[in-house]
Write the structure tokens for this entry.
Amino acid sequence: MKTHNKPLVIANWKMNLIKNDAIELISKISKLDDISVDVVICPPDLLIETIKTHTSITLGAQNCSAQAEDFGAYTGETSAHMLKNIGCEYVIIGHSERRKHHLEDNNSISAKIANAHKVGLVAILCVGENLTERQSGISHDIVLEQLSVLPKTSTKKNTIIAYEPIWAIGTGKSASLTEINLMHKYISVLFENRFKLVYGGSVKQENAKDIISLEQVDGLLVGAASLDFEQFYKIIK
Ligand code: PEP
């Protein structure tokens, strides 16, 4: 069941765009006056402050440190506190690319969510099965296990769940409407409709409307298509 009337569209820019290109893109998005959804943009950390000076659109980060401290000898890390301090309101946690390339596991993901909650950031927890797991019929078990990291502090206000089947991310092949609805229904029944649920995985202008219209979908997490102004505009208008 939808938990929110206005859909939420989260843009994950990943490791893309340099300063001037990012300013150009955010300036165009900010000028739009016919947007029908709530938008959150998640640029690379380095660009967040710059972007903030060019838009009033809500911003998020793509990751935060798992360390409990706000500051410390953790080379290369950015704490949830630092993100909050520069104006972020959301943070993506446990994206499959981070699970794969940075070996993130349930322990670090759970610590990151706790850190986000502690400073008042909304945690966007990404979950989803890979192709082998889907073909073996264990998608629900995998997602259930990934959801077990949610701390008791998780509420509708501070946590969003993003269902992102790994086989659909960046492949151009989105999950089918039935597959999306079934998994979202599974999660929403599990948590008695407590969290907003967004779908991510090859969302583009051609499929965005159909996906967002699904009864169980509260919004979208968009990667590649959020980097192209025309595409993104068609998704959010
Ligand atoms: C993502 O990585 O979160 C994502 C949804 O990517 P894409 O839209 O490019 O599949």
Summary: Residues 106-119 form the longest helix (14 residues). Residues 12, 164, 169-170, 200-203, 221-225 surround phosphoenolpyruvate (CB under 6 Å). The chain has a mean pLDDT of 96.
